[in-house]
Design goal:
The complex is a heterodimer of chains A (288) and B (257).
Chain A (H helix, E strand, L loop, with lengths): L10 E4 L5 H7 L5 E5 L9 H10 L4 E4 L13 H14 L3 E5 L2 E5 L6 E8 L5 H18 L4 E3 L15 H12 L2 E5 H10 L5 H11 L5 E6 L3 E3 L4 E3 L8 H14 L4 E3 L8 H17 L1
Parallel strand pairs in A: 1-2, 1-12, 2-3, 3-4, 4-7, 7-8, 8-9, 9-12
Antiparallel strand pairs in A: 5-6, 10-11
Helix pairs in contact in A: 4-5, 6-7, 7-8
Chain B lengths: L2 H21 L9 H21 L1 H7 L1 H14 L14 H7 L9 H16 L21 E5 L4 E3 L5 H9 L4 H12 L5 E7 L2 E7 L1 H12 L3 H8 L5 H11 L2 E6 L3
Helix pairs in contact in B: 1-2, 2-4, 3-4, 3-6, 3-7, 5-6, 7-8, 9-10
Classes of the chains: A alpha/beta (288), B mainly alpha (257).
Chain lengths: 288, 257
């Protein structure tokens, strides 16, 4: 017997190039599609045309990877202008980025380097002050609230830490008025890299420490064990793992149904596989 | 410095230290697995971004050597923007100065062509104003300006750029490689116009008078000045036919004096 398609109103997938045609022609039921904002910063061209076509069918969420909200060097005005222009064009349902830094001077007095990566900040009061200031600048420019995502971090600044990651994120939301984009897979990746005795319990503890009402979206993805580095990497290259589904179900019990994205960015599978993952998320929402 | 700004300065130092360790040409021996992971990610992003922007250079060098160069270039000229589609402007000069590439003297110009195509495909979308062609009859050339389509670029080279590009874009067509090799041996340079056909950037050869004419247009010359700049051998009617075929022209503008 064929499984009944669940209500997909809150569930989305990333809009990725291998699926453009199939998705736009087949128009499967989805609450939204999400794109990496920076991939659509060009003045024109084919990718923007595809995004316009997708927007005619679906709500679009703009998920940035390059604002560098934690950068002590501040935001790049060019980046903010491009994001504002894209938001004006797309009228997105949500705009988000990460609790990370990306740009700064590698050498004092040298040019600003943009690492094009999600580099971790130290969980200190000063780092929080910087991020609050940058998030508020973005929100004032866009004239709307944004969401900020918790990181999978492969480095930490243990000797500098003054506050917990939860307190950092909650403080950021309360002081700037932004919402939290809770990436459950990132919680699991961090728990595994920190060698938590019970990684699922560590994820659930993190979720339980977050006050209800701050979270605007959840991300789910796959991770991989990187044998050369001996760490777990949030590579968005496989199915969501069982313990991550379990932590997601725990979050839904605590927070209720929330917009949820399945991220799959490397080794992108057939669209049907991705939609199957999205259906699993929707069924868990319905059961929560 | 008050306490708050001193603490923020400490954060800036911490971030500068991590960026410096990422940007260093070689990882230090004590690099943590996490730092190695971030460096590997930067390298993978560099390979993807430059490979996408510079397919001809990648095809000439081969995937492995190109990946090595992309990593090296990331450390020499790291990105300054959060959109890697904007990265690579310094690549042609860097390739030209690279000692290990001295036997590939045309590589820098191939990178210029690749990057021009890449920029062209990201340029603003525009529609050709066919009705504006009527201004060509009934107006003084000194009152007319020809606006080129967004993304149109001109490139002169002492190397047969269009032939090299066509050979690699053709994907293994030996006759195209034979033509490129022959023109390389003859030292036959090619000037090209890069423009968009639909969503794709395309390359077309142009003769010296046509190139001089278009360069004058880009500088802001009116039609009369541009025809003067083109010199002997320039035929505006022929150029216009090529411009319409190649989608170089956006509109003819009448400037009231």
């Amino acid at each position: 017997m064929q499984a009944v398609t669940p209500d997909m109103a809150l569930t989305g997938i990333g809009l990725r190039q291998p699926h453009y045609r199939e998705l736009l022609e087949g128009r499967p039921a989805l609450g939204f599609v999400e794109v990496h904002s920076e991939n659509f910063f060009a003045d024109g061209g084919a990718t923007l045309a595809v995004l316009d076509a997708a927007r005619a069918i679906y709500a679009v969420s703009l998920h940035g990877v390059g604002l560098g909200l934690g950068s002590a060097a501040g935001l790049d005005p060019w980046h903010l202008d491009r994001l504002a222009r894209l938001a004006q064009r797309v009228q997105p349902v949500r705009i988000s980025d990460h609790a990370s830094f990306a740009r700064g001077h590698a050498v004092s007095g040298g040019p600003v380097l943009h690492a094009n990566d999600l580099l971790p900040v130290a969980f200190t009061q000063a780092a929080l002050d910087i991020m609050v200031r940058n998030v508020m600048q973005v929100q004032e420019r866009l004239r709307r609230g944004i969401l900020v995502e918790n990181l999978a971090a492969y480095l930490s600044f243990d000797d500098a830490v003054q506050i917990s990651e939860v307190d950092f994120l909650v403080g950021l939301c309360r002081r700037s008025g932004c919402q939290l984009l809770l990436d459950v897979n990132n919680l699991m990746v961090n728990a595994l890299n920190q060698r938590a005795a019970d990684p699922l319990a560590a994820c659930c503890d993190f979720i339980d420490a977050l006050p209800p009402g701050l979270i605007g979206e959840i991300h789910l993805a796959g991770y991989c064990e990187h044998s050369a580095f001996g760490i777990v990497i949030d590579d968005h290259g496989s199915r969501v793992r069982g313990p991550v589904w379990a932590a997601y179900a725990h979050a839904l019990r605590r927070f209720g149904p929330l917009p949820t994205l399945i991220e799959w960015d490397t080794d992108v599978p057939a669209l049907a596989v991705l939609l199957g993952e999205a259906h699993t998320a929707a069924r868990l929402q319905a059961a929560s | 410095m008050n306490g708050s700004s001193a603490c923020e300065a400490a954060e800036a130092d911490r971030q500068r230290d991590l960026l410096a360790r990422l940007a260093a040409p070689r990882a230090d021996a004590a690099a943590s697995p996490g730092l190695q992971a971030y460096r590997a990610n930067a390298h993978a992003s560099a390979e993807r971004a430059l490979g996408s922007a510079c397919p001809t250079v990648r095809a000439l060098l081969g995937a492995e050597d190109f990946a090595h160069l992309a990593r090296e270039y990331w450390h020499a000229h790291p990105p300054q923007r959060g959109d890697l589609g904007e990265w690579g402007a310094a690549l042609p000069e860097w390739l030209a100065d690279h000692e290990a590439l001295a036997t590939w003297p045309y590589l820098a110009d191939c990178a210029r062509l690749d990057l021009a195509l890449h920029r062209c495909e990201r340029a603003a979308d525009a529609v050709f104003d066919a009705a504006s062609l009527a201004r060509l009859s009934g107006s003084e050339p000194t009152q007319l300006h020809l606006r080129l389509m967004p993304g149109v670029q001109l490139l002169g080279s002492r190397w047969p750029l269009e032939s090299i590009h066509a050979a690699h874009a053709a994907g293994g067509d030996e006759s195209a490689f034979d033509i490129a090799r022959e023109r390389l041996q003859q030292g036959q340079g090619e000037a090209v116009v890069i423009a968009r056909d639909g969503w794709r950037g395309v390359v077309q050869c142009i003769d010296a008078p046509g190139m001089a004419f278009m360069q004058a247009l880009v500088r802001g010359a009116d039609l009369a000045q541009a025809i003067d700049a083109a010199g002997e051998g320039f035929d505006f009617a022929d150029w216009l036919a090529a411009a319409l075929r190649g989608r170089w022209l956006q509109e003819v503008i009448l400037v009231e004096r």
